[in-house]
Design goal:
The protein is of the alpha+beta class and 678 residues long. The chain contains 13 helices and 39 strands.
């Protein structure tokens, strides 16, 4: 059996963030003024770190990402770009003398650029008509993979060229829209020559096909990799279209020979998601793999090619992996995964499969690169603090390198985050994070919020969000409790899988157990508890609204599912509802599906609604249509229940524009304060 050997032990079960002076109020405006640190890249000599900082501009209602470079010890941080638009996908090349990045050209079309390491001598090196979404340099830096888009299917003007001004769409198959955009173009990988100052001879690796790679909406350049000889590459693709695409998660890794154009399926016969190839310097190939077709939240395993044999390195590891990278000596694969309510860094000895934790505490880690043989660079955040760059050596505490958010965060008051273990109705213990307001007094009574996670199988780890920010909720005077209810990763595959086909079962009992447990705390005002959540969390709020039996004083649902039958017929990822609900609403002989539509459909309980509710949606949300939110709002008002709807015409499943984000936060607290602070 594998084992986890913590090399760094967290000595406290709670963490406190404390301001040194009189505390500033953590407002939505302040939250949306924070610089957002991401994508730390170590220079080839291991002496520098390149990273990006995105800063929102509330007045202009946009954000801009600039590039920074600092020494490997965090000193001498310098902003090397100062541009009107955002630089992205930045990487070192020519031994650290230069940096390549993506940036719009004079026509506003994103292209590949290069510059000196100090930001001087910027020049555009690509000329893709439709722009680029990202790129990956080859190991010898003489070739490049560029992600650009190609036309998908036939347009109305193709069929009727005389109707140049019609905006009608003619649709014959599924997956005609996905998440937040209509499927008019899809990404393809192009491979070309690169001499340091120009990209030439680009060839579409998937020319003549209607398959997408990387896979939208989440896939990026991490789904592409080079072999060490720079003569072949690996791309991830789900070679399906229309209905077949809409019901399947069966992607594969394909190896493409640049000289011959020959393609080999490296994961033939593996039926779930195969994703994110990681290639060692000697050419060993590892990747993330799910077992079951149609189950997007399956256990993500680490597989490795051993000759033609596919080896599951995590057969004895009961947790789902999110990120992998090889150690320089290739003895270890380092990985990040949800684990007991956090996202620590682990490493696996490839020879004996033993796993040990190398960075932990009450934090989430994001990305990982080596600086030499034993120093690692990562980003870290928690409920209490935003992303910053850190370094660490195995067996030693991480060292903070960047301090982008310190000028604001150091002015805030103390917020305490505690881990509580709450008993469930089936005799298990549920990890729950509890955030306490600044200057918390256990002798006072506080209003509280049950945070319902989305996904439905996304972890309640130590995330930092610019919408669902638990710290700002606590700073506004609420005790916030976030249970790792059934269906969340980080507690073994059985705990994670229990929710499938059982939306209204144990996971809802877990939420009610958490609410009842917290009501027993002497500092909780039991008459002023709310429930909030987005996506599946929004669905949870709707279901609880009809089944809470007076536990809650108000509700807030963002992009939640109100009508399961309608959701099946109007969503785009049909694999999702097939797996989660058990099947279609017309499959009358399918007892799992029929139970879902009978017992788990929130609209079936709307006659029990008796509590004020705020609902939020975006008109460009194709995952959970805004019509779901409108149904819930209309039902509440028709039943005479106090309700409010906040609708964003330009937003999707998320709220991304700075002013919309501030409006979201203002209405969030205006509603909660109205009903929970009376």
């Amino acid at each position: 059996m594998n084992f986890v050997k913590p090399l760094i032990m967290a000595s406290m079960m709670s963490v406190t963030a404390t301001g040194a002076h009189a505390a500033a109020k953590f407002t939505p405006e302040l939250l949306n003024s924070l610089g957002r640190v991401s994508d730390a890249q170590v220079s080839p000599d291991g002496k520098k770190v390149l990273y990006g900082v995105s800063t929102p501009n509330i007045e202009n209602n946009n954000s801009n990402r600039e590039l920074w470079v600092m020494d490997i010890n965090g000193k001498n941080a310098v902003q090397i770009t100062n541009s009107e638009k955002s630089e992205t996908n930045a990487v070192w090349f020519e031994g650290g003398k230069k940096i390549a990045f993506a940036y719009p050209n004079e026509k506003g079309v994103n292209q590949m650029w290069v510059m000196n390491a100090d930001g001087t001598d910027r020049r555009c090196v690509s000329n893709m008509e439709k722009g680029i979404e990202g790129f990956v340099l080859s190991p010898d830096e003489k070739k490049v993979i560029i992600v650009s888009t190609v036309k998908y299917g036939e347009t109305t003007q193709d069929r009727y060229p005389d109707l140049k001004k019609t905006d009608g769409r003619i649709i014959d198959d599924l997956m005609y829209r996905h998440w937040n955009e209509w499927t008019a173009e899809i990404p393809h990988p192009f491979v070309g020559e690169f001499n340091g100052s120009e990209v030439t001879a680009l060839k579409d690796v998937l020319e003549g096909t209607q398959f997408e790679s990387p896979m939208r909406p989440w896939g990026g350049v991490e789904q592409l990799a080079w072999l060490p000889d720079s003569k072949s590459l690996i791309y991830v693709c789900r070679k399906k279209t229309g209905k077949e695409y809409a019901i399947s998660t069966n992607s594969d890794l394909y190896q493409y020979d640049i000289a011959t154009g020959d393609t080999k399926n490296l994961t033939e016969g593996m039926m779930g998601y195969d994703n994110n190839p990681a290639v060692s310097k000697s050419g060993k190939i590892a990747w993330l793999s799910m077992e079951h077709d149609g189950y997007e939240a399956d256990k993500n395993r680490i597989f490795m090619l051993d000759g033609d044999k596919k080896v599951d390195l995590t057969a004895d590891w009961d947790y789902s992996v999110d990120f992998i990278t090889w150690s320089p000596d290739e003895k270890y694969i380092y990985f990040i995964c949800p684990y007991q309510g956090t996202m620590p860094i682990f490493r696996m000895n490839v020879a004996n499969r033993k796993v040990e934790q190398v960075a932990g505490g009450q934090y989430d880690y994001d990305g990982l690169q080596f600086a030499g043989k034993d120093l690692l660079i990562t980003c870290r955040h928690s409920f209490l603090e935003p992303n910053e760059v850190y370094s660490f050596k195995v067996g030693k505490e991480p060292v903070k390198l960047s301090s982008v958010t310190d000028p604001i965060m150091n002015t805030l008051g103390d917020v305490k985050c505690e881990k509580m273990m709450i008993p469930t109705t089936d005799g298990k213990m549920m990890t729950t994070w509890v955030l306490l307001p600044p200057n918390f007094d256990p002798n006072k009574k506080y209003p509280s919020l049950l945070f319902c996670e989305g996904g439905p199988q996304s972890p309640v780890s130590q995330f930092w969000s610019y919408r669902w920010n638990l710290r700002i909720m606590a700073e506004n005077g609420y005790v916030v409790f976030a249970p790792n209810r059934r269906g969340l990763p980080g507690f073994g595959t059985e705990w994670n899988a229990q929710i499938s086909g059982d939306y209204s079962g144990q996971c809802m009992k877990d939420y009610l157990s958490a609410a009842d447990f917290m009501k027993e705390k002497p500092y909780i005002d039991g008459d002023h508890m709310g429930a909030v959540g987005a996506s599946f969390g929004g669905y949870s709020v709707y279901w609880l609204a009809g089944n809470h039996q007076k536990r809650f004083a108000c509700f807030l649902s963002h992009a939640g599912i109100f009508d399961l039958r309608a959701q099946y017929c109007e969503t785009e990822e049909l694999w999702f509802v097939n797996w989660d609900l058990g099947g279609a609403p017309w499959d009358k002989n399918n007892e799992v599906a029929m139970r879902s539509y009978r017992e788990a459909d929130p609209k079936n309980y709307v006659q029990n609604w008796d509590t004020p509710i705020l609902v939020v949606t975006g008109e460009n949300d194709f995952r959970i249509s805004y019509s779901q939110t409108m149904q819930a709002f209309n039902a509440a008002r028709m039943r005479g229940i106090p309700a409010r709807m906040v609708l964003f015409p330009s937003e999707c499943h998320w709220v991304t524009k700075p002013q919309n984000s501030i409006l979201w936060q203002r209405e969030y607290f205006r509603w909660l304060d109205q009903w929970l602070k009376k």
